[in-house]
What does this fold into?
Amino acid sequence: MKALVAFHSLFGNTKQLAEVIAAQFGGETSVSLKPLQQVTPADLQGIALFVLGTPTHKLTIPAAAGQFLSRLRRLGGKPAASAGVFWVEGMQGPLASGELELANAWARTTGQ
It folds into this structure.
């Protein structure tokens, strides 16, 4: 299986979570990890699983992430799992205690 884990991260917290998630998908899965702004249509060719990590501000995701997801839906993409929710301390982080472990567990159940 081929997977792509993309992320939008201002302060590095979402990037840390994306790295943990991508590492969990290893094994028989070929995984790429990229910032969302660097994802190209070629990156999406042949993928079986796409994971997008974004921060939320005022209970919404960044506009670029929302537009990307809208395009994927128009192309036939659909959710394969429930969204993972992870917390940071304050506005800029760091990640709250135990969040990397929760991301690891989420990826284990999602990548099966």
Summary: The first helix runs from residue 13 to 24. The chain has a mean pLDDT of 92. Residues 73 and 79 are 9 Å apart (CA to CA). The radius of gyration is 13 Å.
